[in-house]
Amino acid sequence: MTGPQETALNGRVALLTGASGGIGKAIARGLAQRGVDLFLAYGWHGDDAEEAAVYARGLGRRVGVASADLADPAAPARLVEQAIRELGGVDMLIANAGTAQVTPWHDVDLELWNATLAVNLTAPFLLAQRVLPAMIERRFGRVLFMSSVAALNGGVVGAHYAASKAGLHGLMHHLAARVAADGVTVNALAPALIGDTRMLPVSPETGETALPIPVGRLGRPDEVADMAIAMLSNGYLTNKVVTLDGGLLPR
Length: 251
What we know:
By secondary structure, the chain is of the alpha/beta class. The protein has one domain (13-244): Rossmann fold (3-Layer(aba) Sandwich), CATH 3.40.50. The chain has 7 helices and 7 strands. Strands 3-2-1-4-5-6-7 form a 7-stranded parallel beta sheet, with helices on both faces. α3 (75-87) runs parallel beside α4 (110-138).
């Protein structure tokens, strides 16, 4: 265990959803190492979120933990209100929670479509809508949406998932242009084929990862966390989708 590093993020408060997954836990640990206080939200696997909280508290960080079903449109407001109540505010929003059910496009029914967009697109918007006014007032804020290369190439999970992540890109572009002059950045990080997570996509036809990875291996959650924290640390980077895919989609 290392001590907190002195960075531009030191003393800030981050609201992180999806904190119990592999990527979420890695981001939580990385932020804690850089002196960030954390409000960790999870849908399932509370033990994993508590593990991340214990690590952060061991570094002297203030940490709140809450369970939330982000398919419930009232959940984002409750999370933000609790984060403010327990930690005094939200300087950074990392909307990392997501849902993915591998389904061919012709089998996607309306229930699955709506449930996927509720978690992957509507909840991030409602969270951002709640935290942005105070960020603008303080003239500092960071919003990072966790997207996917499926938004760029369609992916193998399904039309519902690709559409939800592509919607995040449109939302990011809209918000970023309107808050940049107020010291607030809004970006999206689009990883692909990351190991040690519960959302590694596989082909519904073969049950295997469908695309070759030029670097020859799966990505690691800590590599996603490193990129996320670099984006959160940079006040000049905004209105950008950054892909992290081992060279899968050269751009």
